[in-house]
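Two proteins follow. First one:
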Amino acid sequence: MRDDIFSKRRNGNLVFFSLLISLTVGSIIITQYDVLKGFTSIYKAIIWGGGNFYPDAKSMRILPEVLPKLQETVLMAIAATTVAAFFALFLSLAGSKTTRLNRIFGIVSRGIASLFRNIPLVAWAMVLMLAFSQSPLTGYFALFFYSLGFLTRAFMETLEEVGNNSIEGLQATGAGYFHIIFQAVLPSSLPQMISWLLYNIEHNIRDATLVGILTGTGIGFSFDLYYKRFDYHAASLVVILIVITVIFIEFVSNNIRRVIL
């Protein structure tokens, strides 16, 4: 019996890796990708980057111009995420099996979360550009809608992890729906919700750079502008500032998580 289980598992793994290898080889053949050239070009790219993609003294003069753009990108990501979290909280309460009022509200909330979460952020930005053109509002709404779907789903799962003992105890005392929410459900799930919110802020600050390239706003637009002008020293300075900002936000976020969890 035990040998049969291991044999089935081994055969399943063999089939999986065979399909994966076949798919990889087929993709290489169809796209005519030169694997050897791809690997050898990595060395050339490193050499080129070391000789061209670094900030010099001249590029440092653009700091007063770039820093406000970086600030705009960070604040837009934070604003979009926090506002989305506010609406996601209500949708998750309506959709979670632990707290939903009825089945219809649960289906609608889960449908909204699934729809918004599965549309890529880039797709949101491209669709919204048809309505708002290239503007900060386009980037804000793209981050907002994607965050709404992601956080609603994350909050729902967090609410469903709440133990039933405290809820059943309050129900036994005759507590109403809102008393149960504010006295049992939210106190238990709030730390994890804050952790999801901080994670989404980190994620959105990275994505806001890409959205800025599409919408012509923020630090993403600055990078796109300098890169297309072949001013690689200025473009590299923008990249370094983005990396430093993301690392700093992640450091702060991890320390907050360590305190609340």
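Second one, unrelated to the first:
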Amino acid sequence: MMKAVLFDLDGTLIDTAADFIRILQGMCREKGCAVVDAGLIRTQVSEGARAMVKLVYPELDVEDPVFLAHRQRFLDVYGADIAVDTDLFEGMYPLLEELESHQIPWGIVTNKPRWLSESLLQALNLTERCAVLVCPEDVSKTKPDPEPMYLAAKTLQLDPKDCMYVGDHPRDIDAGRNADMYTVLAAYGYLPLQYKDDLTAWRADCIVNTVAQLHDAVRQLVIAPHAAAELRPQQA
């Protein structure tokens, strides 16, 4: 019986793309170049700040000091106004509320830096509700390595196999599988262009196309067994 649900952050639990789009398109206007398409930006969110800023400055090497300065400016602007147009994906609040009503913990394992992750959770009033937050600073190896998954399970005092992990990038699914967690591919998220054509190749245990489908899967695989166990007579 699975006893917790863990989420990737951007593109899985929280729809952050609108704020990234706002900032990156503003950088395009400052540069005087064509505005990057919003849809293209969404496909790069899960690849991180470097990939997103590269859309605006394709001519610069990612190790160029000028590029690094633009990347840092992007992060600073984002951090200063982290949730202007950001919120949980539609339908996610009821899912979290149902988990909480059954006292089933939920948490986050992300490659997003801790200072940004914590600021985002605080802005959305999720800090106290999130049972565990694992960020790159907490581990020696990030996803797709299973180390962050093991740390999340250990913090919850659970065996990793008792956790469901939901993500929208192959590294999420790989990390969950490597830790022997039940993996769910959030196909409603920010699927990278190079991986979106064959989702079965990710080898997730389950694929959901909407948050409603995710909610159904969580009800069936986590909440219902938990509720049944609560009703089961205690062994003498």
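SUMMARY FIELD: The longest helix spans residues 211-231. The chain has a mean pLDDT of 95.
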